[in-house]
Design a protein that fits this description.
alpha/beta; Rossmann fold; Heat Shock Protein 90; 2 domains; 7-stranded mixed β-sheet; 9 helices; HATPase_dom; HATPase_C_sf; Anti-sigma-factor_SerPK; kinase; serine/threonine-protein kinase
């Protein structure tokens, strides 16, 4: 009898999030096939989202059991940019939660090999917090031969579990999501002397100031810049009597900073978390983060400053 326990002591009541880094084909098969078969034996929905090579290997090993999977999908079709990909992922998770007491997912985020896909590491970090109560096992597959070392380093820091050879074990490099996010944000350099700075008390004033900066920089992105800044100003004015809005260009990037003297953000991961579907749910940070190309946060009990970065495309 095998002593391999594909999900260890996981009891199916909360998220288990494991990174499995593989090189050889057999190494992958020996990890994923028992994981899939255990789920099928327990009557759990089992989903596999992976690249062509991984799907081919698993199809050959699973044989007729392939038809018992809830999903067997090409990962190449999933990447839509970080926020849009997570939004689709969130929608599918909520749909599963409505019909299944627990489920499991083996997923290979193939887009991590692309420059524009590496921001996904931030969402992997945030998932540990925003999906902590969802009853599923997420086995994330990472090809050692395809991914550069910095990406593999981020994988190790964003997954609480790793494979120990016969069962999942705590990952020694795992970091708190907020700490990880701060480490991958753009460097927080001193605001340049050339920056346009204004202390504002209404969102309308902010829209005018930011619109002028965006029109001078790149008119095609005015709408995105203004809307993103507007959402942050609305949030800031809920906790402070005025907001300081600054803007400047740095080579091919427009930077917009919104700063307040409020009590600080209660959770710096909120900009990466899909908002609830209720009409009155707060979604300002999610929308601002979605519209900008990058974001950096400096938050403490004496105030918060958020920088939005818009690249000239």
């Amino acid at each position: 009898m095998s002593d391999v326990r594909p999900t260890g002591d996981w009891d199916g009541t909360a998220l288990a999030h494991e990174a499995f880094v593989f090189g050889a084909d057999q190494e992958l098969v020996d990890r994923v096939v028992p994981f899939v078969l255990e789920g099928l034996s327990r009557g759990e929905p089992v989903l596999v989202v992976a690249g062509e090579r991984v799907r081919s290997l698993l199809a050959g090993e699973l044989g007729p059991d392939l038809d018992r999977l809830t999903a067997f999908t090409a990962a190449e079709t999933w990447w839509r940019g970080g926020h849009r990909t997570l939004h689709a992922y969130d929608r599918d998770l909520r749909a599963l939660q409505a019909v299944a007491p627990t489920w499991r997912l083996a997923a290979e985020p193939t887009w991590l090999a692309r420059d524009d896909g590496r921001e996904w590491s931030r969402f992997e970090a945030v998932a540990n917090r925003c999906y902590a109560a969802l009853p599923y096992y997420s086995l994330c597959l990472h090809d050692r031969e395809r991914l550069p070392e910095p990406v593999l380093d981020a994988v190790a820091r964003t997954h609480p579990l790793t494979w120990g050879g016969s069962a999942p074990v705590p990952a020694p490099a795992y970091e708190d999501p907020e700490r990880f996010l701060r480490s991958v944000h753009p460097a927080w350099d001193r605001r340049p002397a050339r920056a346009a700075v204004a202390a504002l008390t209404t969102p309308r004033e902010a829209r005018r100031a930011v619109s002028a900066a965006a029109l001078d920089w790149w008119p095609a992105r005015v709408g995105e810049v203004v809307q993103a800044a507007h959402e942050l100003v609305l949030n800031a004015l809920r906790v402070a009597p005025f907001v300081e809005v600054s803007s400047w260009t740095d080579e091919g990037t427009l930077v917009v900073e919104v700063a307040d003297s409020g009590p600080g953000l209660p959770d710096e991961t909120l900009g990466y978390v899909p908002p609830p579907t209720k009409p009155d749910s707060p979604r300002g940070m999610w929308l601002a983060w979605s519209l900008a190309d990058d974001v950096a946060v400096d938050s403490h009990p004496a105030g918060t400053a958020v920088r939005l970065f818009f690249h000239h495309r």
